[in-house]
Amino acid sequence: MHVRPILSALRRHRTTAALIILEIALTCAIVCNAVFLIHSRLARIGLSSGLAEDELIRVQLTGSDKLADPKETARRDLAALAALPGVRSAASVNMLPFSSATWWSDGSVERDDPATKFSAAMYMGSENLLETLGVQLVAGRGFTHDEYVDYESMLDDELPARAVIITRSAAERLLPGKNPLGQRLYVSGKTPKTVVGVIDRLATSNEGIAMTEPSYAMIFPIHAPKIAGHLYVLRVDPARRAAVLGAIDAAIAGVDPNRSVSSRQPYREIRDEFFRGDRALALLLTGVSIALLAVTGFGIVGLASFWVQQRTRQIGIRRALGATRGDIVRYFQLENFVLATAGIALGVALAFAINLWLMRHYPIARLPLAFVPVSAGLLWLLGQLAVLGPALRAAAIPPAIATRSV
Amino acid sequence: MLAYYLDLAWRSLRRHVVLTALMILTLGFGVGASMTTLTVLHALSRDPIPGKSHKLFFVQLDPRKLAGYVPGGEPEGQLTRLDAEALLRAGRADRQAMMVGGNVGVEPVRDPGAAALPATYVDARWTSADFFPMFDVPFAAGRGWTVVEDEAAARVVVITRELADKLFGTVDAVGKSVRVNDTAMRVVGVLDAWQPPSHFYDLSVGTFGVAEQVFAPFSTSVALKLGRSGDVNCWAHSVTAAKDDDWVYALDAPCAWILFWVELDRPERVAAYRDFLIDYSIEQHKAGRFERPPTVALRDVLAWLDHKQVVPDEVHLQTAVALGFLAVCLINTVGLLLTKFLRRSPALGVRRALGASRRAIFVQLLVEAGMVGVAGGVLGLGLAWLGLLAVRHQPTDYAPLAHLDLPMLGATIALAIASSLLAGVVPAWRGCQLPPAIQLKSQ
Fold it and tell me: Nearest CA of chain B to the CA of A88: how many Å?
């Protein structure tokens, strides 16, 4: 099969050929970027928090600013919550991954050395926080009772804690090639914090949103119920979650009725809410991509049908001169392949241009080359499928047509 | 003649129902998707206080440490209490107000014997007297408080109509007392319905769907330690997250947490006020309080909203995607119309041979394209309406703003007509250029 007759035929239909190439190019460029965006949003939605997500409930109180002894009330709250049937453990905490509250602090590996600066998400909480969250300790130990301090004892800019637990990724990035245990980090203050343990994973509060620099999660042995506004996290038996949710208000009121529970939510819901925008965008882009491919597909069908009709006589002549049905089908398939290839080549260039523009305005990464063959393959396949019907109709044209209408 | 063309177009479109439906559908979906996203974009970037937005300015100074200073950089986003109170006292603008958000429990003051009810927790705004006239806040009853009451940290409060109704069962709550975080305060005014499209005067507590129900003097909130919300940036401590409020409240705390707006009624006043801010910064620098060279910013409402990029990235992205989709739909419609017209070449050749001018053929084909366009536009309008309905049911904080207003309705119709003409001109032009002789000969 030769390409030259196809090219010379297309030259005679420049406007239509140009239109279909432009349409394929635009579709290719948009679908390329859409698939990439969908991919990155889905990756974000699928991020692991490092928590025992299905077992956690977050409880937020209001009205605790009037308490005479917030620390003691928090201790009694936690005892009451832990005593509820179905609750395995309860802890106070200052924030949870993938939620709006954020606690950040700057630090450095070497004291006052800007080259080793990093910024870390600061988790603080009561003594059984690690087991309540369900984070996995992979090296070292949890905090001892003596290591816990009160946030209120903070003087000037010294974070009072002496010990810290960091995530595995923080250990690998900040202390590469070293045994992290026993290493010292300077976080919020001039006295170093000693790494006593390494946990497998704990996401920061806004991980996946800020894509510019890596961030690290660290846990400090600091009681901060007052400043965190009495935020509790419960680890429950998932089968009895509903019963626990119903019993929380009474347990809190039993300790001190002058407060109210402003929210009690399973952690899954908090997480889903956090990624809601990403899910909506991924869904929208999927819909638009499908619609685009459908529109382009129908466009190709319409054009191919017209060309088949217009060339009925030529097809008849070719058939009469010995071309098989297969030859005719292959002619239209090859023609479509030529158009699609031109469109895809233009589309890929356009896709990178769009990506560059997006990168300048939004926190978006560079379009990986791997997405090009995927979109190109998709459009080639679409073109071939769309042209198949008209091509088969063309092949069904009897050779006798050639003799009839002259 | 037009009636004849319409009849011809109608016959032609009916002959290829599937093709016609395909063209109308693509055009409709393209217009519908574009108009949905453009309407959302339009609603979110609307002027929140039309007629006054160019007179209201957001004030920024830079009291931070020298470390991290970049010449020409952006000053700190908020003011320290010391600076805010100094600017307020100086009174160099036509009007000025300092403010910060809060969240408090409120309950009506009851007889000692009455049963205690749990307090209602609502968002509050601690501000100064000029806030109400500056932002054209309407009163249903009573008034705002005065500068004297500001200075005296008076126990006065302005509440919304909604809260008055909830606490007292009546809008006429002026003179009654409410407990705000356990302190009795006198209601001096009740606001009428007031909900600017965006919370432009304090974006740190949210952009859309935020509404305070309690307003009280800033000085009172400090005296009673009523609490604050929004951003705090402290530069003596390295812990940048929420601080102990006692510490932030101190007059000389190195923390920026207060927003400051001024009203400047004439353009020359704007330049004068900017000079005043620079002079103030120089003075503070001399006194050793400010370490950085004078860096100030004075942006009006729209410039401030633009600077803070209040329209979410997703909305821009969705608009771009929808416009790209419309472009593909348009190209597709051009292609389909072109094939349709060229397929009719013999018939057009006959008409030309019988005396129809090129112009007549062009108009005839354009009428046919226009019919597709009008149908696509009507479909697009319906789809945009459905699309906006879907946006309103999305759990986003800007959802309630997604309404088709009159300008956008006009824009939709204009877009549909422009699209169909754009899609029709090229095919119609090509159609009328066909030489009649060849068409007749090849039959």
Answer: 30
